[in-house]
Amino acid sequence: AQSVTQPDIHITVSEGASLELRCNYSYGATPYLFWYVQSPGQGLQLLLKYFSGDTLVQGIKGFEAEFKRSQSSFNLRKPSVHWSDAAEYFCAVGAEYGNKLVFGAGTILRVKS
Amino acid sequence: GAGVSQSPSNKVTEKGKDVELRCDPISGHTALYWYRQSLGQGLEFLIYFQGNSAPDKSGLPSDRFSAERTGGSVSTLTIQRTQQEDSAVYLCASSLTYGYTFGSGTRLTVV
């Protein structure tokens, strides 16, 4: 069965500092991987996705993620965090199109000025 | 519509009452999903509709939960005899290809 682990429940970074949010997945075949962001009181917004090909994927809002099959990881990165990036971030894994996504428990990002 | 619309945005109900939550997906999206997000928890899959196929109900937590999707469009999630543990945000998402579009959710509070 698919599963996703986000080891960090909370992360605090200073504005302007770099960010890396960790995601490890368990899946027997080539996974479809996603990062979503949820601001307070809002639904989830897709940041980026990986299906195949280049293992470094670019997303919206300056985020990128790297798929590392050997480590079963899909970590999210941003070179310089802005205060508006404070939110909760969810990693998700799925099989081929049409199957449900399995989400991690989320990482809450706090940005300090 | 331009996005996934859910109604109501907030619902307070008494324990034991039935509630209906509505999801209006993006026009043309063939797949529709319901998830539940409890305080401090991740997203829990509830049910999935794909076109005219039988829905995947494997995530429904009990027989008090049911959902239907009429005409391949609007979906209603029904919770019968609500319990306090049903309090959560219920999120709907739709998709045409990979990558869900989520609604803003319905916050259900059972008192």
Give me a quick take on this structure.
The complex is a heterodimer of chains A (113) and B (111). By secondary structure, chain A is mainly beta.
- Radius of gyration of chain B, taken over Cα atoms and rounded to an integer in Å: 13 Å
Instruction: Let me know the largest β-sheet of chain B.
Output: 6 strands, mixed
Which geometry of chain B do the CA atoms define?
Answer: globular
Q: Specify the oligomeric state.
A: heterodimer
Describe this structure in words.
The complex is a heterodimer of chains A (113) and B (111). Chain A is 0% helix and 51% strand. Chain A is built from no helices and 12 strands. Chain A has strands spanning 3-5, 10-14, 19-21, 24-26, 32-38, 44-50, 56-58, 64-68, 73-78, 87-94, 102-103, 107-112. In chain A, strands 2, 5, 6, 10, 11 and 12 form a 6-stranded mixed beta sheet that branches. In chain A, strand 10 and strand 11 (102-103) form a beta hairpin. The radius of gyration of chain A is 13 Å and the shape is globular. The termini of chain B are far apart. In chain B, the strands form 2 sheets. In chain B, strands 2, 4, 5, 8, 9 and 10 form a 6-stranded mixed beta sheet that branches. Chain B has 111 residues and is an all-beta fold. The mean pLDDT of chain B is 93. Chain A binds chain B through residues 32, 34, 36, 41-46, 49, 51, 90, 92, 94, 97-98, 100-106, and chain B through 4, 31, 33, 35, 41-43, 45, 48, 50, 56, 59, 91, 93, 97-105.
